């Protein structure tokens, strides 16, 4: 039923707190009795409440997940910079093999995944994980941040303390606001190409699309992929340190940032 007629976020929140109160009342009559704060912690019913400690935890969790992608990007950048020429030559050979035999791409990827999982089987965790204080940043949290986390809603702290916390939150939200503005600007620049906000840029893009359609129609796709791959992996001696023409062209496209007050 919840798939056919889904509950709204407000209704889900009401249902969650109602279930929490029922469980709290039931466990309060048990022996030994459990307090309300213990039940709330076990049910994790206040995850939507603001906490500087949890924000740091989630941020470093995201950084930890993206660290492998960053390591792969640095490795590929080293290949593109020819820091280890034999590896770069091997990547060229791999590119040719992928272009000439594209039907082997997916079997190779899944075989690599199978080998990685098989090698990591012996290192699997054999006991359940407990609460990690280091991951939760409990050992480095300040007294003020801990007091803010256990504060109720609405706040019961003095106005001076609330003002300091509000200013700290404004500084943190300002960074998120700037990041959201940058992300929105990239999408607006892409829309500007098709909306003729910059007639010269849209005209250049129009001619490029016409030329690209003829090229992709006349030249085999394998030749195009191989040519682009070899061009991207060319030696730094044949590469300029300035930003590429497509990146420079995209950055100069207009956005709505200049219209925001």
TrEMBL record:
Domain Multiple C2 positions: 106-261
InterPro entries documented for this protein: MCTP_C, QUIRKY-like
Keywords linked to the UniProt accession: Membrane, Repeat, Transmembrane, Transmembrane helix
Signal peptide residues on this chain, from the entry's feature table: none
TM regions (residue ranges): 89-119, 204-233
Protein name: Multiple C2 domain-containing protein
